Amino acid sequence: MKSTLFCRTAALSLSALLLLTPCAQALTPEQAGELLKKYYVDDIPAGALEKPTIQEMVDALGDPYTDYFTPIEYALFTASMSDTQVEGIGVAMTINEEKLAVLTKVYPNSPAAAAGLQVGDVLLYADKTDLRGLTMDEIAQAIRGTSGSKVILSYRRGGKEYTVPVIRAQVVIPTVTAEVVDGHIGWIECTSFGAETAQHVLEAIAAYDKAVDVWVFDLRGNGGGYVTAAQDAAGAFVGAGDIAYFRYGDDSMEVAAYQGKAYTTDPVIVLVDEETASASELFASAIQGYNAGIVIGTRTFGKGVAQTLFDRSILPDFFPDGDGMKITTSRFYGPTGNTTDQMGVIPDLLVDDAHIEAVARLFHGPDRTEEPGANWLMVNLTWSFLIDLRNAQPPAGLAPFLNALSEQVPMALITDTDDLEPITPSELAQRYKLNYAGALFSDHDESVYGVDLSILKSYDLVRGKGDGRYHPQDTLTRAELCQLLSNALNLSAAPGTSNPYTDVPSDAWYTPAVLAMSTRGLVKGVGGDRFAPEAPVDHQQFITIMGRLAQWINLSMDLEADTYSERLYGSQLSKFDSWAHSSVWLLSRSQKDINGESINLLWDELEQIDPAAPTTRDEAAFLLSSLLIYIDVLTIG
How far apart are CA 129 and CA 255, in angstroms? Predict the structure, then answer.
């Protein structure tokens, strides 16, 4: 982070839980209200605690993560966080376009593994049941059975059909599986962060670290789990340090720190998608924050709040029958102080789901035992990764990899003489005749801040006006500003959000963005129930909104803003209106370099900025890029 975070231990010292999954009474409504009043992170809506049932009370909060569980629901919920035991053969599968069951995983030490089944095998029959065209549930029902019983499976592999007897057994489906792929990648798949997860990760590293030069940690579809599990799993790669900060409703803070050592010195590539949430986002942000590797995939879910589980182990008088309650008790921030709330984790390489694995398989770690020699590509993405380009045909994944890069990422080809030949993504794509879109608008050359615009576009954080152009010199309107920032930060208004502005039509293109920004308190109306969406944004308005944004994203910036003093700094900002002073100071004066000199994040020296002049779309791109890079939301090279 750019400045130190001073944390005090929160009064609430319970096991925090980072989960995506919302769910459904021995607990009474009065007791539930007591817990919510004491521990809920936000102000409770008026009348919510007066509801007659716990479920109505929870519904009135409008929080999908706070929930009550009956004893049966709570047992199932906690079991879903741990290794699972099933009676069957130990496989995972998917249904392909031809409605055939294809094995996607054969678990180690399972009956299926003992029978020789492999990933990619197509299941045809289970005993005399034709599996073709059946649903997943119907196939599972045909294959599962009691331990010790036998099922005759027919399957197709490589155009040939085989039949094999498989003896069913109790199979442990772990939250973590690991293997070596392509001869040099340690591939870890993690489905949730449960009680055994961190130990499984350590076992995988111990088993394979000497054989690999890079790790892949697959968190796609992982909806979360226990903080301590994510903390310890991340610590295995990053070493000792603060993994996350938790801010409670009373503004007290607690730190989740890893005290141990790193168990590998190889970089880790984290795979994410839009279902990667909560504790998984905490893990990914830790890898980014400590430069222990990179994140590849789509922007994650954006759950930046943590829950505490209340049950009879903590409050036996409240939960005597084995029921439980999950309450949102804090917001969390990664090691760089950035929240994942709404905005999620922005990958270092934004790659769509279809190409994530192919791109991940490109990378070799920098400490390869084999000397790379000529026709390898060296690319600096916080690590100096190597990519093998020795074959005449480009490797799978190269095109989506290059399209995910801005032109500013340092890359070089290793030549026959072991020299480094600098090359840009567009030049390498041209050499291989690849389809390359690039991170440039058609009017890129009209931008004064083209580098920053290119960086934002490579992360899909800015969009044009629908004509392929960004129009950098156009004046930024209030509606366009809302659209720009809501897109960049993945902000959305909750369903049913009321519209307080008489001049913002319900069907206007900008209305969702205006409501999202307004409900977050990042923008305000102009008075008289008006928003003035087509009015230009002047410089001091824009800087003020960006200051609020900095405080919302980054905990350090928020704490820094509290130190602003009109008496100490007001005279330096006298040409700006007083309501803008704290934000102008925050973005142009508050941050210091190692020599104690002020770091200015604005597009020009403060003395050269006219507070009343309209903001251009170009200036908006510069400040957004400058801020996100400075607080480490974006990692460039």
Answer: 55
Identify the burial level of 559 via C-beta atoms within 10 angstroms of its C-beta, where 0-12 means exposed, 13-18 middle and 19 or more buried: middle
Identity of residue 489: L
Structure tokens at 21: 């999954």
Cα–Cα distance for residue pair 174/168, rounded to 1 Å: 18
Residue length of the chain: 637
Which parts of the chain sit beneath pLDDT 70?
1-25, 79-86, 367-373, 637
Nearest to 239 by CA among 175, 176, 293: 293
Name beta bridge partners: 94.
102
Cβ–Cβ < 8 Å for 231, 202? no
Phi, psi of 489 (to 5 degrees): -100, 5
| Segment 154-160 long-range contacts (CB within 8 Å, at least 24 positions apart) | 154/123, 154/124, 154/125, 155/117, 155/121, 155/122, 155/123, 155/124, 156/121, 156/122, 156/124, 157/118, 157/120, 157/121, 157/122
- From residue 30, alpha-carbon distances to 38, 50, 57 in Å are 12, 9, 10
Give the C-alpha separation, 494 to 512, whole Å.
10
Residue 12 token pair = 């609430």
User: Is the distance from CB of 404 to CB of 425 less than 8 angstroms?
Assistant: no
CB 118 within 8 A of CB 103: yes
Residues 81, 20 contacting (CB under 8 angstroms) = no
Backbone angles phi, psi at 364, to 5 degrees: -115, 145
pLDDT tens-digit profile of 323-350? 999 999 998 999 999 999 889 999 999 9
**What values do phi and psi take at 39, rounded to 5?**
-120, -15
Structure tokens at 525: 């109306």
Amino acid at 252: S
The answer to pTM > 0.70 is yes
H-assigned helices in 574-614: 581-588
The whole-angstrom separation of Cα 287 and Cα 293 is 6
Specify the 3-state DSSP secondary structure of 360: helix
Measured CA to CA, the distance from residue 87 to residue 169 in angstroms comes to 5
Give the three-class secondary structure for 51. coil
Residue 100's Cβ-side half-sphere holds a number of Cα atoms within 13 Å equal to 13
Give phi and psi for 279, each to the nearest 5: -60, -30
